[in-house]
Amino acid sequence: MNKRFLPLLCLLLSMAGFAQRPIDAEQYRFSIELNDQNDTIYGKAEIRFRFLYPAQSVNLDLYKTKGGKGMKVTEMKGRGIRAFRREQEQLTVFFSALNGLPMIQ
Predict the structure, then answer these.
(1) What pTM was computed for the model?
(2) Higher-confidence residue: 79 or 7?
(3) Rounded distance, CA 61 to CA 57, Å?
(4) The dihedral sign for the CA sequence 23, 69, 82, 26
(5) Could you identify which of 17, 54, 58, 59 might form a hypothetical disulfide with 98, taking C-beta atoms 3.0 to 4.6 angstroms apart as the criterion?
(6) In Å, how far are 34, 35, 61 from 39, measured between CA atoms?
């Protein structure tokens, strides 16, 4: 059971990195579903933040996927989001233009 909570713990610890970013995280919402039959945790994180100064992209830390396990981003929604890219343990979110103070959800 402890191994199942490792990815969740990594996600929560990575949120501390937001303090050094050009954004201010205002709200978090987590939905978690446990499956005892195949030892899988499915989770959904919704993060609402605002920009502290203009930025074209924001980097977020994620737990690396290994052997089909780990954190995987399947969808990203929000005003001004152009694209996102995952490289190893780094998720970069790109915006359509320099944003002064947009709200991204």
Answers:
(1) 0.59
(2) 79
(3) 14
(4) negative
(5) 54
(6) 8, 6, 24
Higher pLDDT, 20 or 98: 98
* Predicted local confidence at residue 99, as pLDDT: 58
CA dist list (Å): 37 to 16, 40, 71, 79, 105: 32, 8, 20, 38, 33
Could you tell me the two tokens for 22?
Answer: 């050009």
* The Cα angle at residue 34 between residues 32 and 37, in degrees rounded to 5: 160
Tokens 């359509």 map to which residue?
Answer: 96
Give percent of the chain with pLDDT exceeding 90. 1
Any idea what DSSP says for residue 43?
E
Q: Is the pLDDT of residue 102 over 50?
A: no
Instruction: Report the DSSP beta bridge partners of residue 42.
Output: 33
Query: CA-CA-CA-CA torsion for 11, 87, 21, 14, nearest 10 degrees?
Result: 10
Question: What is the spatial distance between Cα 104 and Cα 63, in angstroms, rounded to a whole number?
Answer: 22
Could you tell me the two tokens for 34?
């446990």
